[in-house]
Amino acid sequence: MAKYYEVVLEAPHLMTVGFVYGYLHGSGLSGLCEFSEENKIKLASVKEKVFELIKKHEFHSHMILEDTIFEPLMKAFCNLKKNDKAHIEVKEAREILSAYFEFNFEAFTKKHGDEIDAIFAAAGNDVTIDWGEKRQQTDPDGKGVELYTQLHDYEYKAKGTVKGPIGPILKLHKIADMHKLIEVEEIHLEIGQKIDIGCYKSSSGKD
After folding, report:
1. Which of 66, 64, 182, 42 is nearest to 123 (CA)?
2. What is the CATH number of domain 4-97?
3. C-alpha distances in angstroms, 117 versus 109, 121, 160, 182?
């Protein structure tokens, strides 16, 4: 199973984005690489909360990285620092143990209900869904009634929490957020211990 990391960087945000995507494209590496600025991710640590307050100045970035690109990028940032080139400082790095978000929806047609079920069914085996409330019912007396009334022939209401690795959670969050009847809350991260970057050595201990 893939591992994922959260990384807080200090540098102008556009510089960071340009360097990261340019490096990944040039090196041919692939893996999950997301910025919290483009996703609804709740920042958890003390440093991140400070970052959340000042990120409007566009001088910090918060990234989610898959293990396939984490080490190469950390080394690339260190090389920038050693060579006194564009300075992008790694302020903090931690492994992401899991992630979760809450959701709710309300559908009044079977078509929409099936669409929503398909979205959550495709989440994968690594994602668990805790249905805090789930009610699906049909009422023949409501058939043909206009949508703006309170009576419908079909009603599907639910709310709950989904939890799993940040990779599939991010994917599910984006897809669910695109559906007009599903409301999703911010993604919360459950993080592990801080990783010592300084200046980055891989798990093998070699530069």
Report:
1. 182
2. 3.30.70
3. 13, 6, 13, 11
Q: What is the spatial distance between Cα 48 and Cα 38, in angstroms, rounded to a whole number?
A: 16
Span between the terminal Cα atoms of the chain, in Å: 25
Query: What does pTM read for this prediction?
Result: 0.81
pLDDT digits (tens, 9 = 90+) for 42-101: 766 545 555 554 454 457 788 999 999 999 999 998 888 776 666 788 888 999 999 999
- Predicted pLDDT at 88: 84
d(CA 26, CA 55): 28
Topology of the domain comprising 99-188: Alpha-Beta Plaits (3.30.70)
CB atoms within 10 A of CB 103: 22
CA torsion angle 24 70 185 16 (round to 10): -50
pLDDT band, residue 37 (cuts 50/70/90): confident
Burial of 62 (0-12, 13-18, 19+ CB in 10 A): buried
Nearest to 97 by CA among 185, 6, 176: 6
HSE, side-chain direction, 13 A CA sphere, residue 68: 11
Q: Where in the chain is the domain with CATH 3.30.70.260?
A: 99-188
